Amino acid sequence: MFAAETYIERRRRLQADVRSGLILLLGNDESPMNYPDNQYPFRQDSSFLYFFGLDSPGLAGVIDIDEQTECLFGDDVTVDEIIWMGPQPALKEKCVEIGVKNSAPFDKLGAILKGALEKGRTIHILPQYRGEMVLKIAGLFEIQPAQVADFVSEPLIKAVVAQRSIKSDEEIRQIELALDIAYEMQTTAMKLAKPGVYERQVAGAMEGIALGRGGRLSFPTIFSVHGETLHNHQHGNLMKAGDIAVNDSGAETALGYASDITRTIPISGEFSQRQKEIYSIVFDAQQKAIEAVAPNVEFRDIHRLAARILVSGLKDLGLIKGDIDQAVDAGVHTLFFQCGLGHMMGLDVHDMEGLGEDYVGYTDSVKRNPEFGWRSLRLGKTLEPGYVITVEPGIYFIPELVDRWKAENKCGQFIDYNAVEKYKDFGGIRIEDDILVTQSGRTVLGKPIPRTIEEVEQACSSA
Question: Rounded to whole angstroms, how far apart are CA atoms 82 and 152?
């Protein structure tokens, strides 16, 4: 937990930005896996964590902007609960840690909210991503669950996004800690990924590192020789010589801050010539995209830059023909690069995605492109100092997508489908790093993880 002054200042700014009404920030509850006492590992709501800092279930914070008061609602544990959980700090003690002066049992919250509604006051809430929390709010407001969305506040969303987007020095230090864990996860994977080893053995070892370092995974690990499946969480393949595995993984610190790194690993310890050719294109795209990161640059322009470099490289290999810019304008790159170049990162690995990607990654003047490939770009707006983003170009040969485009002869004037056919068994390659936008440019966060062909091959052979 940060110092109380950090949370006090965050809430003060939130009040100033929202201006009037009550702000209700609900913490998460425990969530059962298959029966009530067998619960998923608890993860606090990130916005509650940002403004109230407490990583325990069953809490809610109310900020009354008009009255200039704050109150934390929750219940102290009973003796029966202490038997199973051990002693826990009292609610008043927790309040001291975060600079909140008032507290009350949770069952008092409903009357406060009902009274505010009866007076015609505005209650601001954020979008909800868990069904049980929708039901909880509906019960507190004495409304139908479908009506909860009516209380979602755009002013609150925009205020939270504006504040959480700019990372403080102490937040950057947390992200660096998460990257320290990611370094160990990635380099261990390079040593363990060998012919005759199952993907799950590597994925399990990486999760063990995250847990052993006092953190946990920031998202379910993607470790697969089928890297053409962008979010492949299956770890059942027995790796063999000649395979390449995409390792997209990251850790989360005890305070909830994330890392997100991708490397592509040759299972034989060395890339084949064909793999080197594709890897070099992706590496070049990432390097130039990172160099383009700077304040006042629109990230969608950097995405286009990466797409152009990928198309140029594939043209050199004979898979694409014609004018490069015209090919990008036609969307040729989306046959090979279907996703976005990157996203915001912080307390969520896709930072604040639950608040709405268009609020986080776009603005009233920078709108999301609805076209295939472009619509998956989570971040398009102008970069500002303090943003932490990912840069993660890739090339993916998805057989089903190739077959569909070929049957339609889509972009046939630019694509040599006979050449592309020879790559349908290739898989995919992605390279990803976490970047801090600075006043003068950018900084690649974390200590360097093997990234060049030579560095990756050396790390794979150093088992």
Answer: 36
